[in-house]
């Protein structure tokens, strides 16, 4: 690449006459064969700097003095700091080094040609390096050939997958259009059935509430009469204190404070009693009687105001005469009875209408999801041959110490404790991030889980050629910024298309 750049920088005015082109090219130290034509002596015995800025005597080439601003007159010495020396490296690969490394007593060229005048004897190891390089090149080439063969197969799979998804889009849209009116009809039927259900339920509930309220009025009046000892239509504190079920601390006496818990006015008429006091008094009385029954069953000594044994026996007899539990009789009245058959039938009709609507609605939602998935799939960048589509919805993991890292191409990357079901998001796919001309060599994943006192987690994926798809390396070079190395046949180039290097 550097050689091509240097040649492109040569002005058109430096094109040499035909007489030089026709002559045998003479070697010049530090100049590769492909550029020798630029360094041949003209009939005038001159040399034109490669940037076209000056013309100097040909004898000034490699005279250890920098005459050209671009350093092109000193390719074989260290006189210019901006020039390059070509190592021919016969038996290996030729390469350029900066001319400031020439004769610096360090062997940079494998043939030692850069130290021709430093007094250092550099061994020629080009054959040895060349053999090793050819072995490595053959190894890499073998991997590339196997990988590229798999890539072609994966490309075929990706293309078939895309075609399969897209071919279903139009039939799915037609099915959706056909089912839409049916869904609208089912929705209307569902609304009618639910409205009928609500109306019948409300009617039943209203009738029950009216009946319950009437019964409550009767029970409240009975309890009012029971407490109103002087029958003056008013309940006062002294009358309340005679009811031991108000003895909350169970000390045998009903205090003024205990009375005020229920009686918040000086005197209560029947209306105030029913609306404010009855419900709480009912609960207090029920709890007290339950305590008495429990103590009687456990054989404990009766409280001084507890009814005598004859009364308890009479109460037990009354309980036996009523199969339903007397203690819960009023509670049962406060519980709405089951719906009658016509309401139950309406509820069943509503349930069936909802079931049919939900079933078809879910079917349409599934159709929408498939259409959306196919459209998004068709817009995804899976490479020119769609080979990367074959890895969509697949994941690859690697264990590193106590963690398992998971890489899901075009999805989300995670870190989790080994063996755990869920983990921490390291980012979702954002873009291909390879450099220009090598776009498909890197991927970036961002917007992962927020790091404590740090950024959102992210992952950059380096993609290398390999025979198998495998996550081979995981690192964290910066806090919450991860680097994955992923090997895959998809990164293997065609081994028959290569770059020829100058030897």
Automatic annotation (TrEMBL):
A Pfam short name: PRKCSH_1
GO MF annotations, alphabetized: calcium ion binding
| InterPro entries in UniProt | EF-hand-dom_pair, EF_hand_dom, Gtb1-like, LDL_receptor-like_sf, Man6P_isomerase_rcpt-bd_dom_sf, MRH_dom, PRKCSH, PRKCSH_N
Q: Which Gene3D superfamilies match?
A: EF-hand (1.10.238.10), Low-density Lipoprotein Receptor (4.10.400.10), Mannose-6-phosphate receptor binding domain (2.70.130.10)
Q: Does the keyword Coiled coil apply?
A: yes
Span of the signal peptide: 1-15
A single Gene Ontology CC annotation of this entry is: glucosidase II complex
Q: Does the keyword Endoplasmic reticulum apply?
A: yes
Where do the segments described as Disordered lie?
Answer: 186-212, 316-350
Q: Which UniProt keywords apply?
A: Coiled coil, Disulfide bond, Endoplasmic reticulum, Signal
- State the Gene Ontology BP annotations: N-glycan processing
Q: Give all residue intervals belonging to the MRH domain.
A: 393-494
Coiled coil regions, renumbered to chain = 278-305
Basic and acidic residues composition bias: residue spans: 187-212, 320-330
List the protein's name: Glucosidase 2 subunit beta
Species this protein is from: Caenorhabditis japonica
Q: Taxonomy-wise, where does this protein's organism fall, top ranks first?
A: Eukaryota, Metazoa, Ecdysozoa, Nematoda, Chromadorea
């Amino acid at each position: 690449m550097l050689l091509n750049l240097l040649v492109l920088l040569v002005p058109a005015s430096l094109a040499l006459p035909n007489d030089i082109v026709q002559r045998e090219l003479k070697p010049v130290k530090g100049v590769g064969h492909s550029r020798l034509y630029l360094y041949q002596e003209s009939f005038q015995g001159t040399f034109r700097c490669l940037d076209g800025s000056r013309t100097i005597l040909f004898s000034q080439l490699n005279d250890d003095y920098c005459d050209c601003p671009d350093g092109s007159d000193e390719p074989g010495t260290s006189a210019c700091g901006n020039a390059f020396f070509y190592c021919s490296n016969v038996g290996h690969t030729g390469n350029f080094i900066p001319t400031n490394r020439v004769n610096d007593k360090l062997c940079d060229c494998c043939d030692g040609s850069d130290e021709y005048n430093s007094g250092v004897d550099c061994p020629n190891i080009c054959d040895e390096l060349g053999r090793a390089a050819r072995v490595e090149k053959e190894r890499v080439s073998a991997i590339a050939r196997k990988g590229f063969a798999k890539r072609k197969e994966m490309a075929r799979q990706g293309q078939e997958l895309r075609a399969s998804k897209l071919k279903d889009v139009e039939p799915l849209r037609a099915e959706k259009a056909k089912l839409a009116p049916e869904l609208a009809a089912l929705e209307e039927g569902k609304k009618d059935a639910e409205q009928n259900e609500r109306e019948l339920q409300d009617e039943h509930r209203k009738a029950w509430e009216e009946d319950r309220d009437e019964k409550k009025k009767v029970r409240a009046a009975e309890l009012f009469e029971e407490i109103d000892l002087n029958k003056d239509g008013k309940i006062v504190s002294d009358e309340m204190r005679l009811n031991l079920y108000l003895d909350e601390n169970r000390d045998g006496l009903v205090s003024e404070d205990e009375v005020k818990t229920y009686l918040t006015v000086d005197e209560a008429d029947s209306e105030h009693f029913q609306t404010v006091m009855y419900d709480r008094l009912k609960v207090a009385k029920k709890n007290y009687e339950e305590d008495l029954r429990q103590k009687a069953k456990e054989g404990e000594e009766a409280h001084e105001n507890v009814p005598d044994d004859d009364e308890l026996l009479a109460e037990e007899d009354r309980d036996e005469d009523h199969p339903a539990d007397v203690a819960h009789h009023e509670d049962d009245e406060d519980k709405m009875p089951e719906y009658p058959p016509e309401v139950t039938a309406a509820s069943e009709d509503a349930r069936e209408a909802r079931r049919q609507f939900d079933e078809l609605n879910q079917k349409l939602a599934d159709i929408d999801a498939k259409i959306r998935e196919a459209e998004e799939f068709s817009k995804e960048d899976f490479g020119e041959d769609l080979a990367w589509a074959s890895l969509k919805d697949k994941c690859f993991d690697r264990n590193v110490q106590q963690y398992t890292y998971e890489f899901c191409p075009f999805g989300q990357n995670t870190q989790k404790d080994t063996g755990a079901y869920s983990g921490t998001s390291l980012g979702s796919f954002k873009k291909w991030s390879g450099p220009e001309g090598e776009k498909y060599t890197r991927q970036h994943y961002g917007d992962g889980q927020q790091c404590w006192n740090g950024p959102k987690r992210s992952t950059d994926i380096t993609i290398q050629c390999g025979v198998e798809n495998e996550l081979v390396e995981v690192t964290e070079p910066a806090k919450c910024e991860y680097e994955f190395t992923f090997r895959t046949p998809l990164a293997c180039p065609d081994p028959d298309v290569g770059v020829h290097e100058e030897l």
